[in-house]
Design goal:
Length: 278
């Protein structure tokens, strides 16, 4: 399921699921406060009541719907780690209300660049070593930045998205892993065969592991742990994903929530000058 690929990233060969972008499109990425009317009702209509109750408990354990919807500014840098070797993929800022997005990364030859775009439209500008990129290269890097954002937000915020339109929730039994008993909620979609299983800890009501089968594949699902749940602003987030065998990780070491950010973060290619978030 995981293989070295540039898909979903702004540069550099890394491992990420090939179907994450199609999954996000099928699930309808609606992460801001202006969720469409009836989103919960649509999910409930497709889902079984027990699974919906578990999803509600997960949301409550992470701070609740109001806390999530009032969270506006976020920062997340992604670090890929495979067999102990780490590489920084991107450093991103996101205004969840407006869709403004800043991404900092490096080209394949190691040149730093900055993307300033709106993820709702895909439009924006790219600056390579401080200078505006040529039109064709800019178009490519804007597309890669948008794919990177889509991958990042699902790996970071999936438990907040279980009531998104087009998502079907099904209770899929219980499973004991070590000393922890889990309720398994199958997360499937109206428009794609991808399947995710949320492992909901009965003691904490947090999703501290997931597994998935992408593209309609069969066999043993790929499983990752979600480690380190802690408060960021009014919500809880987990900054570490670890494969079942421990050989692969996706880390978000500078994950932060900000009550406000200057407009320059999303409009200027100059280095970001803001105080650390929580």
């Amino acid at each position: 399921m995981f293989s070295p690929t540039n898909e979903g990233l702004a540069g550099g060969a890394v491992w990420l699921p090939r179907a994450v972008v199609s999954l996000l499109v099928a699930a309808v990425v609606l992460l801001g406060p202006a969720r469409p009317a009836g989103a919960e009702e649509l999910a409930a209509g497709l889902s079984d009541p027990r699974a919906v109750q578990l999803a509600d408990a997960v949301l409550a354990s992470m701070g609740g719907k109001d806390a999530w919807e009032s969270t506006r500014y976020l920062r997340f840098d992604m670090i890929s780690e495979k067999d102990g070797a780490q590489s920084l993929l991107t450093d991103e800022y996101w205004d969840k209300y407006t869709g403004r997005h800043r991404l900092e990364a490096k080209t394949d030859d190691g040149t730093p660049y900055v993307v300033l775009q709106n993820v709702n439209t895909g439009e924006g500008a790219v600056y390579i070593a401080g200078r505006r990129a040529a039109a064709e290269q800019e178009k490519t890097l804007l597309q890669k930045a948008l794919s990177s954002w889509k991958s990042s937000i699902y790996w970071l915020f999936m438990p907040y998205k279980m009531h998104d339109p087009g998502v079907k929730l099904t209770w899929d039994g219980e499973e004991k892993v070590g000393n922890v008993m889990y309720d398994k909620v199958l997360v499937s979609f109206v428009s794609t065969p991808d399947k995710f299983w949320a492992y909901i800890n009965r003691d904490t009501h947090l999703m501290d592991r997931w597994s998935f089968l992408l593209g309609g594949r069969s066999g043993e699902p790929v499983q990752y742990l979600w480690n380190g749940w802690r408060p960021y602003g009014k919500i809880l987030l987990a900054p570490e994903r670890v494969s079942a065998d421990g050989s692969r990780k996706l880390l978000f070491p500078h994950l932060a929530v900000f009550p406000e950010l200057p407009d320059s973060v999303f409009s200027s290619p100059d280095p970001v000058q803001v105080k650390a978030g929580s």
